[in-house]
């Protein structure tokens, strides 16, 4: 990263001038000494506005690539990637589209706008929701910077919103003829634009050009927790992180009737200023009689009842308490700096799932307090009905104590980043030494 990009990376949203072209300003991360403030202001207004929910069933006929011409050439991008001026544009082949996706004219109009069954319109200049809310953002306003990561549903990279000088994380999802990917796009857009809470990553807007959907979110400059936990997480920091996660999950359940379904350290983002926020809602599900109908998410963090339900082809096994199990497992991973189940299960998925279903639940190390160990035990009860609810967890002595103490999360983040960089440097040096020793001698 050159000097200019490095400088941008260290400036928080709150330090940058200007407002985004959308219905709200970027919120600064919560301070290090106390949990985030109660929801109000923008959140209350957006809730009052009756923001519509997107539903995959509202999209008739599936997806199809729109005609060439409404694309991103003016912004310097082709079908989801940069193109050079002398590179001829290639029209995507129309031969691969199957019957369920043939009627694309119902959702993609002649201008290339994507219509979500009257609930939202996604186009090259932003997204308009049916309740009147609009988020105006487009590719020409963005300066592409570093790639931050790749996942099952797309690529995330850092971008700079040039009109406001605000750093953002932009997720790019190439549309494919796959119902699960379409459902994930709809679900994440729905949750991101409705979920206004201190513990949920901010949504800045979305747009659609040619074969890709892009949406822009708050850039959390310290990355995800799984990249910060290698040295372990002390109990006071663990309490603050856990409190933020529980409040975020409770908000999703109570206000939006949503189960996250993929709770793990990778999906918790942290800022250098101490903000802690949930992200990645592509596999989240609507609550229906307290059950989510599908079992998706990361197998390593699945609750025992989910694993048994999948093995028996029982799709009605996911409840809110399954997310509580994933929360408890994530807490132990953060505390010890690695996945809690024995190392021999790492390379063998069957052994890993067998250990979760038939083995004893893992525990926090003994040097953690009785309250913290009891908190985790209440998350990891093998019988889902006996696990604590979010309300019970928030009222647990472990989190009550967190609300009374000052915790410098920003300082811990700085130390965790230094530890990570030091370990990476040591690994590079060790590899260089190994390559030197193993290199053939020069004659």
TrEMBL record:
InterPro entries: Kinase-like_dom_sf (IPR011009), Prot_kinase_dom (IPR000719), Protein_kinase_ATP_BS (IPR017441), Ser/Thr_kinase_AS (IPR008271). Residues 1-45 are annotated as: Disordered. ATP binds at residue 171. Residues 142-399 form the Protein kinase domain. SUPFAM superfamilies: Protein kinase-like (PK-like) (SSF56112). It holds the Pfam family Pkinase. Its EC number is 2.7.12.2. Keywords: ATP-binding, Kinase, Nucleotide-binding, Serine/threonine-protein kinase, Transferase. Belongs to the protein kinase superfamily. STE Ser/Thr protein kinase family. MAP kinase kinase subfamily. This is mitogen-activated protein kinase kinase. It comes from Rhodofomes roseus. The lineage of its organism: Eukaryota, Fungi, Dikarya, Basidiomycota, Agaricomycotina.
